[in-house]
Amino acid sequence: MVMTAAVRRRRRPAADRRGADRPAAADRRWAARLGAAAGLLVALAALLLAPATPASAHAVLVSTSPTASAVVPGAPAEVVLTFSEGVRKVPGKIRVIAPDGSRADRGEPTFKDTVVTIPVDPSGARGTYLVSYRVISADSHPVSGAFTYSVGAPSTPPTDTGTDSRANPVVENAVKVAKYVGYLGLLLLVGPALVLALLWPRRLSRRGPARLAWSGLGLLAVATLAELWLQVPYTAGGGLFAVTGSGFGDVLGSAYGTAHLVRLGLLAAAAFLLRPLFASPVGRTDGIILAILGGAALFTWPLAGHPAASPVPAVSVVVDAVHLGSMAVWLGGLVMLAVFLLRRADERELDAILPIWSRWAALAVAALLLAGTVQGLIEVATPRALFDTTYGQLLLAKIGLFVLVIGVAAYSRSLVRRTAAGRPGSMRRAVVAELAITAVVLGVTANLVQTTPARTEAANVAGTSTGYFSTTLTSPLYSLQVELDPAQRGNNSMHLYAYTSDNRPQPVQEWKATAALPSAGIEPIEIPLLSLTDNHATGEINLPAAGQWVFRFTVRTSDIDQATVTATVPIK
Fold it and tell me: How far apart, in whole angstroms, are the C-alpha atoms of residue 171 and residue 252?
């Protein structure tokens, strides 16, 4: 009886079976769409609840008050840092250290757009103070540094033992690995989803591509969570597990955290629609919803990185999303070709699939080239920065590898044109070669997005080159503070300050100074000096060449007491 009933069920007319399956299929589609809507609501909630953060360029410290290395007559009531763009606070990472090593800052610093104000003890002792800082720029990267100023007279600079502004190399490398895993997950998700929706032969099982896509979705979710976790020690300093609740809350409340939370919500929404796609072809409506979710998710990468902080953020964000989407379509499709289609599809199916895929690949590569060119013009800014900055050198390496990939892709395209089936064996080898090279390209890209943009690095170099040189020289009779501005070839201004061993102004009866560049055969040039006060003299000198100049200073403090000190100054 059981067997007879089973046979009867199997022999039921196809029309009846379709009629019975329609309600269940419709229910599944509606459930998938409801789940997608729920995930989308999570993403929108994260977006709406996030604080608005203005887009700006990578922050650079442009000025300080008191000026770095300056000597001021009395202790200031506040220290002011001015950055090129707005910055955010890293709790406990802005400190002012007094000459005796104690904390001179009082209370929390205030942040107002580009200006950071640090209240300090106005009754501080004489001597040299150290200001150390670590803040977060708009592109989510930490900016740190330190400088000194002196009250009354310089002394031995103190050491800040309470904080370390250096980045943890383990954390930095872990962030790059997380970025790489995220890119890998993206292409493993996009490739199978796209091919299953538009190119997959009906007779072939979808199980293998579905597993690959679920793996990509998992990698992408894990990488997103890892990036959120690692952002805490990356910006605040410390090891992999130096994560506090308040620190994690600060990350989640930032634009960086918002972008990642939105990405997780969009992935959850897409997961509900991907399940029916992995089982059988889906309708146009579900396909359009999936495309919208995927396009929205692509924007979360540039919104959490350099593009959102570029000089033209609207252009950079769109261009970077196009660049990322083109990469995912191209490389994800290559994975599907290499792993499944070239192995399982028959000659007739390949004859239909390969020409279509070849056109898709050509469009994706063209979009990559166009988007990459625009990105390069924005982020590099000058041809010289391509060679003088780490970002530019990584970009050149990426371009070289990309040209190599284009050559292999052109060979694959020629195979498609030559034969109907595109020579599956030769095609498979060419596709594997493309994937091997692009795996290296992804590694370079993961490093590139964590590297200071060339425009910012070049600006830092330019800012450094226009700053002045300052040092303190000592002798048995006095200590001499030397300042040279701008320490470049051409006209320079010099200021000399003499102090006693206990950091009091040292009266000087006669000043003498010379400058020589032995490596270029330039003999000592006398520097005319004008005494402004008992312990302060100034002068002007034109330095005709760059190099390591040797300055000699002879200071006479009485009729018979004098001493000579020497300094080597790098002139750019």
Answer: 18
